[in-house]
Amino acid sequence: MIPQSFITDLLNRVDIVDVVGRYVQLKKGGANFMGLCPFHNEKSPSFTVSPTKQFYHCFGCGAHGTAIGFLIEYSGMGFIDAVKDLAQNVGMVVPDADDKIPPAQRAAQQAQSMALSDALSRACEYYRQQLRGAKQAVAYLKGRGLTGEVAARFGMGYAPNEWNALKAVFPDYDALALAESGLVIDKVDEAGNKQGRYDRFRDRIMFPIRNTKGQVIGFGGRVMDGGEPKYLNSPETPLFQKGNELYGLFEARQAIRDAGYVLVTEGYMDVVALAQLGFPQAVATLGTACTSTHVQKLLRQTDVVIFSFDGDKAGRRAARRALEACLPHVTDNKTIKFLFLPQEHDPDSFVRERGADAFAQEIDEAMPLSQFLLREVTADHDIDTPEGRARAQFDAKPLLQAMTPTALRLQIVRGLANLTQSTPAEIEGLFELSKPVAQVRRPPPRQGRPEPVGLELKLLRHLIAHPVLTMEIDEPALKAFESLGGESWERLSLLVGIGQALGEAGTFAAMSQNIKLVSSEFDGLISEIASSTETEFDSVRLELRSFIRQIKMDMLKEELKTLFSSGLTSDQMGVRYREINALQDQLMREAAAEMAPR
Fold first, then answer.
1. What are the boundaries of the CHC2-type zinc fingers (predicted)?
2. How far apart are CA 150 and CA 207, in angstroms?
């Protein structure tokens, strides 16, 4: 868990204009910066970045957030990765309460990562330069229908057919980073003694693999003849784990947003060829089965994921593994589909033979996850027999157990029940599904919390816009807030707690980021503040104090009413009555003092 104080300090150090400006072309417009929104298509800029609020907001689609939120939404990073990325840029080291690694060892790891990253970047540039003079490689790519523009976009290159070509790039060819990055292979004898080294990639078309920040973390190399292996990937390294990365995701991010979906294919060439043919929203797994991490990364980028597989047995096996990786992440607001091409085609050949429109239609008609799951568990069994139906249920059980209790799971349960002559309640009971939906009558939905209005709304707005004001809210003020009612009290006390934890360094950006971690209830209010003009701090402070006094006065008046109707004698009421009068006088004096000319 990253400490809240670190997040606050980080947001105070980074400049959101610099962060967003790496990805969006911004122009000064008054107090803010303007640009075309990267989260939806638009022709005139409605995307603003405020240097004073350290916040971005789009008036077109409503997207908004801090520098951390921007990296998460734009690049698909997780929260921790986004924090680490920003921290690295301003020279901060992210603390980790569970991190037992000594500082010296952590510094050594960071130095190693930098050395590997530098080696891979230099090798990538070398391979790109070599491609220009490699006639055979250029002819091969042209034969596959690729233009120089697409090859340049993906940073493609060529590894010469030499054992030690990288000596031209790295004078210290024996450097440890070359072996650790997977660029070279050390030869060792039976006793384990090093006997020299040689380049891993030789006479291959080179596909650089980038992470979500655009850094080269590995390579895929493809032969141009019938050699084996057809594709050769970098080995697992501290920078590169195949089960975590997707080829082409960095290049495809904007195209995915524009298209509204991502197409997951099986190989590098599929991605590059589809980009050439009008489908730049394609990515590929790296010679490994689709993993849970892959699915999480994809669903951060878009609400619709379409897997494309060959129609043969190998394609079906790959699709089944992708299905299993997807199930824990299925939600009712995300769509996952499966596209199976004819056995004689991959995406590249299909588009070239039948055209882009035909491929787009195949994508539109891709099989939904629910249909694919039911087909998988019933296809090999005779469901006209009790044994076949039982076996289908047996195969379906682990798949349904992997899903969370969503409406989609209920629909699949109903479909399976219909196919196997059962009831949804019987399926849920037999499978021991967590939080069964069909077999328990659910209570009527609870009415949503009423929206804040009036005085409460003004208080919430001021506390979010200027969290440092929470430092002025004492115990009597909190007690007064409690008089506003349960839900109002919950909202206000939550904001006061977050704001006071931020302390004197609290800003609107830090407040917003911390609120987002615990509740989405304030998103609309945050968006409203982000899109409005900056409020003047001193006037807001005076207004907040006035609001708090008003609430305290109302609370004291109610207490007086209760006191008078309590049936107590004058003597019994006297002490508290005088205390209330004194408190009211004090509040009136405070108000008069603040209104007096200065």
1. 37-61
2. 12
- Please state at what angle helix 407-419 crosses helix 369-378, rounded to 10 degrees: 30
Q: Measure Cα distances from 112 to 105, 116, 264, 307 in Å.
A: 10, 6, 32, 36
Phi and psi at residue 549, in whole multiples of 5°?
Answer: -60, -40
- The DSSP bridge partners found for residue 35 are 47
Residue the block writes with tokens 């609001």: 547
Q: Which residue ranges in the chain fall short of pLDDT 70? A: 1, 96-101, 103, 106, 434-450, 486, 567, 569-572, 594-598
DSSP per residue, 213-231: TS-EEEEEEE-SSS-SSSE
Q: Where are the strands (E) in 322-473, listed by range?
A: 335-341, 367-368
Query: Cα(451)–Cα(105) distance, rounded to whole angstroms?
Result: 51
What does each C-alpha distance from 87 to 12, 65, 214, 504 come to in angstroms?
A: 11, 17, 17, 21
3-state secondary structure of 26: coil
CA atoms of 74 and 78, how far apart (whole Å): 11
The token pair at 107 is: 């510094």
CB-based contacts of 224, cutoff 8 Å, min separation 6: 136, 137, 140, 203, 204, 205
The DSSP code for 167 is G
pLDDT value of residue 545: 82
Exposure letters 110-149 (e unless 16+ CB within 10 A, then b): eebbebbbebbeebbebbbebbeebeebbebbeeeebeee
328 CB neighbour count, 10 Å cutoff: 12
Q: Which domains does the chain have, with CATH numbers?
A: 4-89 (3.90.580.10), 103-237 (3.90.980.10), 244-365 (3.40.1360.10), 375-431 (1.20.50), 454-595 (no CATH)
Are 372 and 410 contacting, i.e. CB atoms less than 8 angstroms apart?
no
Side-chain-facing half-sphere of 494: CA atoms under 13 Å = 18
Tell me the β-bridge partners of 110.
none
Cβ atoms of 341 and 310 within 8 Å: the answer is yes
Are the beta carbons of 305 and 298 closer than 8 angstroms?
yes
pTM value is 0.69
Provide the pLDDT for residue 445.
Answer: 41
Q: What Å distances lie between residue 513 and 6, 218, 327, 488, 531, CA to CA?
A: 12, 33, 29, 21, 16
